[in-house]
Design a protein that fits this description.
The protein is mostly helical and 370 residues long. The protein has one domain. Helices cover 67% and strands 3% of the residues. A hairpin with a 5-residue loop joins strand 2 and strand 3. Helix 10 runs antiparallel to helix 11. It is globular, with a radius of gyration of 21 Å. The two termini are 18 Å apart.
């Protein structure tokens, strides 16, 4: 009698796919709702569907790429990792010579195609690089010197590039996700705990280096003290959430999107969700992200090798950390920082790259432990 194979090709994780597509659909609707007023009253746009059209195009492109990537065996990515790393470094270097937007250099202009944000690619490049390296390292990952230190320097290299672009928030995401991957890969918890503790003073220095970051940190303690200046965005966000109540004002009925919250379709779109769909709408979004995280963890646990486990952990961590930070910022739980809400906030680079990452996650789920 033939023994059943322990690992075999199965269908992709349908729950994960359905959850991501549902979050994406909600995001497209909310981008339109949050941006329609400002887009219609912008003389250069004069089109309430301007951001909806662009986000729709990005969503279609992202879904196509996700379906393509899902069909590619994730082990083939291992051979292309060095090329991906090289391309990412080149893009991170190019962006430093691009014209600044609001004092920061984060985007590469692509004309009619919009802007490319290399930091969105860098997050997943670090995941792929660490997964490949840790799998090759094996038991040596338990050695703090030099193994863990080398991987931390690799992560810090990319985070430093992103920090130079004045994007401390994404640099922080990169470091947090890297610590999670290294820990899951086999590093000792006390070692990483000591690293996190030692990085606190360094984080303080980075925040102090830019006056606006320090001002944000100080205003976090009492945003109402300077509600017309540094605390303005958080105050308006809290007003939106508060006015939404339990059931919300109704889809499209937000008042704070009418020039009160700057660019409400971006990082603070969760506040508009709370205003229009209420506490119930916010809970639904949070539950959907919890389902996404749970499926990602399940895929990581049942992956057929350590490489698949580490990639699944990394991708899930990127999405989870960003969602947690974004929601925490909008609700006033942590100081204001610019991290988009995955699949919901407006932005082509973030949306397409995140959907491609989900494609990899789906491919891992199709080669699972039976």
């Amino acid at each position: 009698m033939n023994k059943p194979k322990l690992f075999q090709k199965v269908e992709v994780d349908f729950v994960l796919l359905a959850t991501v597509l549902l979050i994406l659909a909600i995001g497209i609707i909310m981008v339109y709702s949050a941006s329609s007023y400002s887009a219609l009253n912008n003389p250069s746009l004069n089109d309430d569907m301007y951001f909806l059209k662009k986000q729709g195009i990005f969503a279609i492109a992202g879904i196509v790429m996700m379906l393509i990537v899902e069909k590619i065996d994730y082990h083939r990515i291992k051979g292309a990792t060095n090329i991906i790393v090289l391309i990412t470094i080149i893009l991170l270097g190019i962006v430093l010579f691009c014209p600044p937007v609001n004092g920061a250099r984060r985007w590469i202009p692509l004309g009619p195609l919009g802007n490319l944000q290399p930091s969105e690619i860098a997050k997943y490049t670090v995941v792929l690089l660490l997964a490949k390296g840790i799998e090759k390292t094996g038991e040596n990952i338990k050695k703090f010197f030099p193994t863990v230190v080398i991987y931390l320097f690799v992560a810090a290299f990319f985070a430093g590039f992103v920090y130079i672009e004045k994007n401390l928030s994404i640099a922080t995401v990169i470091m947090l996700v890297s610590l999670i991957i290294i820990y899951v890969g086999g590093a000792k918890g006390w070692q990483l705990g000591s690293i996190i503790f030692s990085l606190i003073p360094l984080g303080f220095i980075f925040i102090k280096a830019e006056p606006y970051r320090w001002a944000r940190l100080m205003s976090f303690r009492d945003p109402w003290k300077d509600a017309k200046n540094v605390g303005y965005q958080l105050v308006q966000s809290l007003l939106a959430l508060g006015s939404g109540g339990v059931m919300g004002l109704g889809l499209g009925q937000s008042r704070q999107k009418a020039y009160y919250i700057p660019e409400p379709h971006n990082d603070f779109i969760f506040a508009i969700i709370g205003e229009e769909l209420g506490f119930v709408g916010c809970v639904v979004i949070i539950l959907l992200f919890l389902v996404l995280i749970q499926r990602g963890i399940k895929i990581a646990i049942h992956a057929k090798d350590m490489y698949g486990t580490l990639i699944a952990v990394g991708i899930t961590s990127v999405l989870a950390v960003q969602a947690i930070i974004n929601i925490a910022v909008v609700t006033g739980s942590i100081p204001v920082t610019g991290v988009p809400l995955p699949f919901i906030s407006y932005g082509g680079s973030s949306l397409v790259v995140n959907l491609m990452a989900v494609g990899i996650l789906l491919n891992i789920s199709s080669q699972t432990n039976k």
